Amino acid sequence: MQRAHLTVHGRVQGVGFRWYVVREARALGVRGWVRNRPDGSVEAEGEGSRGALEDWIESVRRGPSAARVTGVETTWSDGSPRHRGFDVKD
């Protein structure tokens, strides 16, 4: 199982960004989570096929219309599945 851990920078809080990430992930069959970070960035982890994750990351780079993504740090790993769906974490 492929896994991608993302840190998204820019205007990504207060613009519906987390719910956008959830919608895109679920549409692509990616499982994981997303949350706001205290520094104003958004953190997310997704797992699935490499192709689905690459498509998800590309959609995260675009973001919803009110967002302005200035960078996405991505760390790839492999491992056993950890997630059953895709949710917002507090």
Write a short abstract of this structure:
With 90 residues, the chain is of the alpha+beta class.
Could you explain the architecture of this structure?
With 90 residues, this protein is an alpha+beta fold. It has one domain: 2-Layer Sandwich (Alpha-Beta Plaits), CATH 3.30.70.100. It is built from 2 helices and 5 strands, in the order E-H-E-E-H-E-E. A 5-stranded mixed sheet has the order 4-1-3-2-5, covered by helices on one side. Helix 1 packs antiparallel against helix 2. The longest helix has 13 residues. It starts with a strand and ends with a strand. The model has no long low-confidence stretch (mean pLDDT 97).
Give a topology summary.
Blueprint: E1 2-11, H1 17-28, E2 31-36, E3 42-48, H2 50-62, E4 68-78, E5 86-88
Parallel strand pairs: 2-5
Antiparallel strand pairs: 1-3, 1-4, 2-3
Helix pairs in contact: 1-2
